[in-house]
Amino acid sequence: MVKDKIKVMIIENEQDLLNLYKEFLKSKGYAVLVTNTTATHIMDDYLEFKPDIILLDYRLPGDKNGVDAAKEILEQYPAVPIMIITAYDSIKNIINGEKIFEGKKVTLVVKPIKLFLLNKLIKELLDA
Q1: How many CB atoms within 10 Å of residue 89?
Q2: CATH number for the domain including 19?
């Protein structure tokens, strides 16, 4: 029996990193269903593609950062695993201070991240 591929959504404002994550994850057997450089339409994309996990950059252009986008998803879909990727270690203070993140499958990863570690953290988050 062929195991269904894990469906991934990637929101990353740096196109080169977005492509790197996408190609790496595809090479590891993930199905990268949707990518975007902003979180403006994150709820529409989520509803259309129903990913198993969301990789979400913190710093994004437009009216939503990664934490705002994560909150928007978690308010309606509290079981969704979300990995927030940021260059700012201090973002963990924001996440730890927000009730909406308590008990959720949300992890913070500080850039730069080694790709093998990205794969390991995704598996851990999905198994949590």
Answers
A1: 10
A2: 3.40.50.2300
